[in-house]
């Protein structure tokens, strides 16, 4: 398929090398769809719905998702710079939306105040990402680079940060009970306590 239409329902469709930068789409639904090597940079999906879809090697930077619903979405080797996930419609009765990001560039994303249990972030570049006030218990955030990302009053209970680097997490400001950190990187957690480490 090479075109997307307002108000359309797509099921089990495959979109390959679709270039729709700055697209404006509304009231469309995608279920069990696959997007490969597509360019949706700067696009807006308004009042849309994505269920059990896969994005591979796609550019979805600066995409806007006002009042759109997502569930069971996997992004693999995608570029997602500047995405504001707070504009998505997240039903209050649900906490696990089965979102997975693998080997993605996610600089300048915002998850501010969201409740996303069991979020999966694997081998992602997460520079300047806003996780403040969010709830992400039981999530997997492994092999990621969190340079300059913000954590404040964030629920990170039981989160697996194994092999992740460059995070600044104040253990007095965030809930980290049961979280898993790589031993050497975990030393950064003591900085907020004013502790001096000596050899």
From TrEMBL:
Domain of life: Bacteria
InterPro entries documented for this protein: 5peptide_repeat (IPR001646), PA_immunity-related (IPR052949)
Alphabetical list of SUPFAM superfamilies matching this protein: Pentapeptide repeat-like
A Pfam short name: Pentapeptide_4
Database matches in PANTHER family: ANTIBIOTIC RESISTANCE PROTEIN MCBG, PENTAPEPTIDE REPEAT-CONTAINING PROTEIN
Protein name (Swiss-Prot/TrEMBL): Pentapeptide repeat-containing protein
